[in-house]
Design goal:
With about 800 residues, this protein is an alpha+beta fold. It is built from 28 helices and 20 strands. Strand 18 and strand 19 form a beta hairpin.
Length: about 800
């Protein structure tokens, strides 16, 4: 470009000779220039007429200058040069928007608007592949979506291109009809990739094209005003490195993970499928919006009449902003909810997308009184997220808790179970899930009765081996244990006990301790096991899916909690504190050296325990402080507290995550004591207490998680963990299966590995999938806090 510009200034007929003569450069020196020109592909080559013409006129210089501006500012890969000489023997495939739909065409020639100003865009002559009569049309550049420039550059001319592409298009349609691809997942991954690509490094923002630089850059072009508009449009999409623009070639890579050689007919079929997926997503999914090709510059002949070559900026599909995407997702959800062919009462029948699940979670929170507050506070509509607002508007429902409940009932996620003079009683579960829960309650009652009668018929002393008649469980029904929970606890899922180590047959170190600490967690593994079990597989699948969708229980909503499973199911699975009952548990036993708190040995057992003594945190603290009580409950608390407190201190000294957690809790305790605002004992509403009872429970659950993780690591087996709860961060593991889906899956894996029960252990990939499913619900509402005010007149 430098040599050509210099030759033009010197008036030389041969740019290369002029440049070498002026500076006496030896031939070939330009090859070692620090900024070599990029090699041209076939479609970037100038026309044959232009190559043979050595006299560089002003049109050629302006054309080359325009193209160089585009390349220099980061849009090289989108630049496409096409000429009539090339198209006449090798038409270029392109996706075109015609008649309200996307189609495939072949660009056969470029046309000049002779009777009008050259400043206007040229026209293109095309052949539509979709039409049987091979109709030829003349279209604007803006009707083209994407030119297949890479395919065109890598293939040789075809004798009958129209017939060839018609056959491939028919194959693509057959494939779409007969096969199912993970189009939703592929489109979402591509969208996330493009949105993540928008963040520019600081140094790149300094060097790249900016709005402030555009007028100065456009002034160098042949048509500054048109070029300024062009650059502004390009800047909205992003340059080659940070572009939000995708095309069918991008989507093809996300749809098909396996390799396909470039130029093969199979690759064309795949790209046609990808083009259809992008077109349908733009129509229905809300992630992408069509972006047409744009005219950049044109090269004319010597007499400025014959149009020889044009340069275009390739188009495609642009990833839209998150707010637009959310609005379309809400509208799509409302449309699906209103279609009885796609959704049915009693449960959603169609496959839910990630956006659908997010909307349902937000609707559930809104139905329970949660309000999303924004800083601008411009009215009720601004308080709601865009997807929730559009869903309620699309369904014709009020933007309130009552409207959200009606929406959930309409899509079958919640059930309208009864009506009375006080209003409608609503269950936040589908009818199928409630029916499966009632079946679980009946089955659990029979099971408990059978196990209790079996326990009474045998000797009530601890057994060294599990009993077949007790479902291969260890019988611990003769040992006392305690549950320590908040006053308002509805479902108890953990208890603490002790056992003489000598009763197990394991080696006892008299200097260390004669006790094993027992930490019992309610056994809910039947819900997460695949195959025949306590209930028919259909009911188990419904309950497991319900827990999977909810993810975790929420207790911070104004109108009450949203539980992991229906309360009747949780009550059936929780620990019973009635005198005449028994409980199935997954028990961790720990042998701790009482001298320094070292964990000497630990293991996991499937057990049957008696009804624990129910205590509040205040009750447990009073018993620990009392020196005169001689009851079994006092003995259990004293031994457990002595062992667990010493292990906890040692663990905090050796584990950085435990130490940081202890520091945080100590600071909260200090603030709570200074303000004198103890509040509730369950942490709701920002209250905080840390009595000796609280410390005992915290230590027991920390030990359970630590020991379980250690045992699984020694067994060289994975276990599902929630994001952020890795061992090096001190996260809990398997301690709350009635409240967290991930803990139920962790319990299922633990007993499969350590107790050889429930079939094959989960693979590493299955554990990752469980973690992703558990975090999906939490991610949907992770940045949303419950409002303190409660709507008037609402009823659970």
């Amino acid at each position: 470009a430098f040599a050509e510009a210099l030759a033009t200034l010197l008036g030389s007929s041969d740019s290369a000779v002029g440049a070498r003569g002026a500076f006496c450069m030896p031939p070939g020196l330009h090859r070692h220039h620090h900024h070599p020109a990029a090699p041209r592909t076939k479609i970037d080559q100038p026309s044959r007429r232009r190559r043979n013409n050595h006299s560089l006129n002003s049109s050629s210089s302006s054309y080359d200058g325009d193209l160089e501006i585009i390349r220099r500012n980061g849009f090289r890969h989108r630049l496409v040069s096409i000429s009539n000489d090339n198209l006449s023997h090798h038409p270029m495939p392109a996706e075109i928007y015609d008649g309200g739909s996307s189609k495939l065409c072949l660009v056969t020639s470029i046309m000049h608007r002779r009777a009008e100003s050259k400043a206007k865009q040229p026209l293109l002559k095309i052949l539509l592949i979709d039409d049987d009569d091979r109709a030829e049309k003349v279209v604007d550049v803006g009707q083209l979506t994407t030119l297949w420039k890479d395919w065109h550059a890598s293939t040789e001319p075809i004798d009958d291109p129209v017939g060839h592409f018609k056959g491939l298009l028919s194959e693509a349609r057959d494939f779409l009809r007969d096969n199912s691809l993970q189009t939703e997942k592929a489109a979402m991954n591509l969208y996330n990739n493009r949105m993540a690509n928008r963040s520019r490094p600081t140094d790149y923002r300094r060097r790249g094209l900016t709005k402030k630089k555009i007028p100065k850059v456009a002034a160098q072009a042949s048509n500054p005003s048109r070029f300024e508009d062009l650059l502004r449009n390009l800047l909205k999409v992003g340059d080659d490195h940070m572009s939000r623009l995708v095309d069918s070639e991008f989507m093809m890579d996300y749809l098909y993970p396996d390799f396909c050689r470039e130029g093969d007919d199979e690759q064309v079929v795949r790209r046609l499928v990808a083009a259809h997926v992008l077109s349908e997503d733009a129509k229905n999914g809300g992630r992408f919006r069509r972006r047409s090709c744009q005219f950049a510059s044109a090269l004319y002949g010597e007499e400025d009449e014959r149009l020889e070559e044009i340069a275009l900026l390739n188009g495609g599909w642009i990833a839209v902003d998150a707010s637009i995407k959310s609005a379309v997702e809400g509208q799509k959800f409302a449309s699906s909810a209103m279609s009885k062919n796609q959704m049915k009462k009693g449960g959603v029948s169609r496959a839910l997308t990630a956006a659908d699940e997010r909307i349902i979670h937000r609707l559930e929170c809104l139905a329970m009184g949660d309000v999303w507050r924004r800083s601008d506070n411009q009215g009720d509509r601004k308080d709601l997220e865009v997807d929730v607002r559009e869903t309620l508007i699309g369904l014709g429902l009020p933007l309130s808790s009552e409207g959200a409940r009606s929406a959930l009932i309409e899509v079958g996620r919640w059930s309208n179970v009864s009506e009375d003079n006080l209003g409608v009683v609503v269950e936040p579960w589908s009818a199928d899930t409630l029916e499966a829960s009632r079946s679980l309650v009946k089955a659990e009652e029979k099971r408990r009765t059978l196990l209790l009668n079996t326990c009474k018929s045998i000797k009530t002393k601890p057994r060294k081996k599990p009993l077949a008649q007790l479902e291969d469980r260890f019988d611990l029904s003769s040992l006392p244990c305690v549950c320590i929970d908040a006053k308002r606890t509805s479902f108890r899922d953990d208890a603490i006990g002790i056992r003489l180590r000598s009763s197990t047959g394991r080696k006892v170190s008299k200097a260390a301790s004669k006790w094993e600490v027992l930490i019992h967690i309610a056994d809910v593994s039947d819900i997460y096991l695949k195959g025949e079990g306590l209930l028919p597989s259909h009911d188990i699948a419904l309950l497991r899916h319900a827990a999977e969708q909810r993810g975790m229980s929420r207790y911070d909503l104004p109108l009450g909690p949203l539980h992991l499973l229906p309360p009747v199911a949780l009550k059936a699975l929780s620990l019973k504190t009635d005198e005449d009952s028994c409980n199935r548990c997954v028990t961790l036993w720990a042998y701790i050296d009482e001298r320094d708190g070292k964990l000497l040995e630990a293991g996991l057992e499937r057990t049957l325990i008696a009804s624990p003594t129910a205590l509040t945190f205040a009750d447990a603290t009073s018993l620990l402080d009392c020196d005169t009580d001689k009851s079994n409950v006092k003995a259990v608390l004293s031994v457990a507290h002595r062992n667990l407190s010493r292990w906890s201190r040692r663990h905090a000294n050796l584990n950085e995550a435990a130490r940081k957690r202890e520091d945080r809790l100590s600071q909260k305790e200090l603030i709570s004591n200074a303000t004198g605002r103890d509040g509730r004992d369950d942490g709701v509403g920002g209250s905080f207490q840390r009595s000796r009872g609280h410390r005992l429970v915290d230590s027991s659950l920390d030990l359970y998680a630590f020991a379980l993780g250690t045992l699984m690591r020694r067994a060289n087996q994975p276990i599902p963990r929630a994001p952020g709860s890795m061992e090096n961060r001190g996260g809990r593991l398997g301690t709350a299966p009635l409240r967290r889906y991930i803990d139920g899956m962790a319990q299922r894996q633990a007993i499969a590995v350590l107790c050889d029960y429930g079939g094959k252990p989960l693979t590493k990939e299955e554990c990752r999938l469980a973690a992703r499913l558990a975090s999906k619900a939490n991610e949907a509402i992770s940045n949303i806090k419950a409002a303190k005010d409660t709507p008037q007149g609402s009823r659970r």
